[in-house]
Amino acid sequence: MDKSKEKIGIIGYGYVGRAFYEFFKNHFEVFAYDNNPTLKNDFSYLQDSMDFIENVSLVLVCVPTNALPNGCVDMSAVHQVLENIKQEKLVLIKSSIPPLSTESLSKKYPHLKLVCSPEYIGESSYYLPPPYDFDKEVVKTPYFIFGGRDNDCSAIIKFFKKVAGPTKEYIKTTRSNAEVCKYMENSFFATKITFCNEFEKICKTFGADYDVVRELWLKDPRITKTHTLIMNEDKDYCFGGKCLPKDLDGIITQSFKYGYEANFLKSVRDSNKNLRNDALKPHILCFHRIAYKEAISPIYFERKMAIGLLRLEQYIESYLQRGYKFGSIKQCLDEPKKYFCLSFDDGFKEHLEIAKILQNQYNAKKESLIFSINVNNALNNTLCGMDLLYYLIDKGKIREIFEYFKLDLIPSTLNNIEVLKQHYIKQDSKSLCKFYETFKADLSHIFLDSKKLKELANYGLIASHALFHRDLTQHKAQSKEEILESKQILEQLLDTKIDIFCYPEGKNDKELQDFVEEAGFTFALSIKHIHSQYGIGRRVAKL
Fold it and tell me: What are the residue boundaries of the UDP-glucose/GDP-mannose dehydrogenase dimerisation domain, all occurrences included (predicted)?
């Protein structure tokens, strides 16, 4: 330990932690720690514990703050670090944290002098000229932002000035300003990337060359060149990585939590997901309810689970006008620019009439119409998946359902439905049976019965959609029994082999894919696409 040098501690040794180790190491004595023991193999100087913290003047928190499944930022790693700092200490948080987090952390850890600072070290591998070249080396950053109390910011700036020198800009601001600006920047980059990828598709639609259009567009000096190239055309489009997706999720979720719905950013996120995944998918369209003669609950439309017959016809005609033909799943996989097919989930009563219309109007082949049947819906009128929840919500029983599951209501009805869905589909079959017995309802009026299902088999291929319409990645032993039982029931009823399985909610993993193959299915339909006939992505119709 060099007593002549001031000491700095870095917690977290990913991209950011390593960059700051390089930034500080020649001017201070720097200690670094990461809770991933395998990193010690590559970086022998990493400490075995955080014991050094009591001897350092400044602690940098560079731990990951990933997105949780609900979109919230996972702050657990930040808390683990701060909980281990027992005495008064100057702490700079370089991890991306949601607005108001530093304020909240300061109240929980009042002995710490917390300052947050957005970081711009990136994952990109291509060359950037000055002044954009600070994404790899901290010392090249033209400005540094510090959000916190004035005295604390000034104390940290002294450390930075010793390395970065007098030509940089050192900006002191509030904690919230510093927190929001990082999310604003990454959200803008995400928007710009999505915008350019969208226009690449538009160029293809009109026979224009995106690279040429881009150069013409960039003649306007008000537009900068960064984030305008289309990367990974042979793989995923748009943006991925560790920063943009989770930061976009984070600011959307945090804003909603505090009363604002960021609809524009939500559309950017949705567009990115669609562009990335749709680039790989065959043209197998996914539909649920089709409004034809019978009235359909408005919830289905609000949840984007229903369209009118005219809209369905518009989809079909748009494909036919572009030269596509009705084809089988195999044809759609083998020649994705030539064939398309339609899939209809859950066995709703109107599907039979729709099948007749499609065959009469478009001469649609039987193998180009796939009807995924949830066996308990169609044959037993029990455990009717999300449809039971929709029915009960229509009857004003949403509060009763939340109380049953011991969940907390939030102001938005549609978001309450999503909360219920995510909880409901993760239940095991026994719990779902108990729920059905508690809230029993007759939904036979919206589903095909066995007689109509047999008739439907004359017009399209019948696929198994399991029994309970739950997430099959949960409670795997039950899931496997359910897959087999649903196949056996349908084959016995229809006296034909069922070759297609459709994962409820599109939820699947490698173990389920392997089991579906072992069970004797030829294809398995999902939402997200992988290069396997047991993970075939479908294009959810934009409703």
Answer: 177-273
Whether CATH 3.40.50.300 fits 283-383+446-540: no
Cβ distance 56 to 31 under 8 Å?
yes
Which is nearest to 285 in space by CA: 199, 362, 372, 361? Answer: 372
Which H/E stretch holds residue 346?
Answer: none
Residue 261, SS3 per DSSP: coil
In the chain, what percentage of residues exceed pLDDT 70?
A: 93
* DSSP codes of every residue in 411-439: S-HHHHHHHHHHHHTTS-HHHHHHHHHHS
pLDDT at position 276: 76
| Domain residue limits, the chain | 7-173, 183-270, 283-383+446-540
pTM: 0.58
H or E segment and range at residue 479:
helix 476-494
- The helices-and-strands tally (H runs, E runs) of the chain is 20, 17
CB-neighbour burial class of residue 220 (10 A; exposed 0-12, middle 13-18, buried 19+): exposed
Pairing of strands 112-116, 89-93: parallel
What's the pLDDT score for residue 476? 95
Class of domain 7-173: alpha beta
Report the SS3 class of residue 307.
strand
DSSP 490-534: HHHHHTS---EEE-GGG---HHHHHHHHHTT-SEEE-SS--SSTT
Task: Name the residue type at position 462.
Answer: I
Inter-residue contact 51 to 7 (CB < 8 Å): no
Residue 71 phi/psi, 5-degree rounding, is: 95, -15
The number of residues making up the chain comes to 543
At 539, give phi and psi (nearest 5°). Answer: -95, 110
Structure tokens at 54: 């009591």
Third-level CATH fold of 183-270: N-(1-d-carboxylethyl)-l-norvaline Dehydrogenase; domain 2 (1.10.1040)
Distance CA(15)–CA(314), nearest Å, equals 48
How much is the mean pLDDT over the chain? 90
pLDDT tens across 147-191, in order?
999 999 999 999 999 999 999 999 999 999 999 999 999 999 999
Q: pLDDT, tens digit, for every residue of 25-70?
A: 999 999 999 999 889 888 999 999 999 999 999 999 999 999 888 8
Please report, as a single letter, which amino acid is at residue 311. R
CB-CB neighbours of 241 under 10 Å: 10
pLDDT digits (tens, 9 = 90+) for 484-501: 999 999 999 999 999 999
The neighbour count for residue 187, using CB atoms within 10 Å, is 22
